[in-house]
Amino acid sequence: MLEGMHVSRISVRGFAVASATAVTTVGAVVGVASGNTQPSNDMEATAASGEGTLLADIPAGQQADVQTASLAQQADAQAAAADTAAQKSAEESARKQAAEDAVAKKEAAEKKIAEEKAAEKREAELKASRSEARADASDIATQSSYSIAETQAIARQMIPADQFQCFSNIVDHESGWNYKASNPSSGAYGLVQALPGSKMASAGSDWQTNPATQIKWGLNYMNDRYGSPCGAWDFWQANNWY
């Protein structure tokens, strides 16, 4: 019996050494997964000597639980490492997106400022054009009648140079520069075919016979409704009326 028991102890110790080696290996893997690259001397010594807490010293019914716990620890370490890597990747992506958004916002703001400045410049130029010193209807000597050339010369004196051609285009289509042109069906009258013609009385009581009065009224109308004669001409081309 004693000899049999001795053999059994040796067998158990041999299994214990093998088991310890397995546990040491699992522990080493877990250590690497968790960032600890230094092997455990105690575990190595235990594995080599067969002493210490070995699977052989643990009741057989609990050995599987110990091995399962070791594997679970390894899985937890790997999962933690994966979570850390995922978090770093997400943070880097967020920083990159934030930088791109900042650049896009800056470009949009710069574009808006440039557009606003351009609009302000156009408005200033338009105001300067309107305020340009031009002759008024009252400055033009009246005549009993006017030729087309004389009527056009009056218009050149009253209308800003950069707006004259647009004004002339409209008058060409509306009346052919005939200040007495009348549309019997609609009641439109004069160079700019005011409808009704009596509207031009606001510019002067001689609206029926004085092209300067008609030009004054027409210019004011185009400025008020379309911003300028060129604005009125743009509308006319799209609609064939203004």
From TrEMBL:
<feature type="compositionally biased region" description="Basic and acidic residues">
    <location>
        <begin position="89"/>
        <end position="103"/>
    </location>
</feature>
<dbReference type="Pfam" id="PF01464">
    <property type="entry name" value="SLT"/>
</dbReference>
<feature type="region of interest" description="Disordered">
    <location>
        <begin position="82"/>
        <end position="103"/>
    </location>
</feature>
<feature type="domain" description="Transglycosylase SLT">
    <location>
        <begin position="165"/>
        <end position="230"/>
    </location>
</feature>
<dbReference type="InterPro" id="IPR023346">
    <property type="entry name" value="Lysozyme-like_dom_sf"/>
</dbReference>
<protein>
    <submittedName>
        <fullName>Transglycosylase SLT domain-containing protein</fullName>
    </submittedName>
</protein>
<dbReference type="InterPro" id="IPR008258">
    <property type="entry name" value="Transglycosylase_SLT_dom_1"/>
</dbReference>
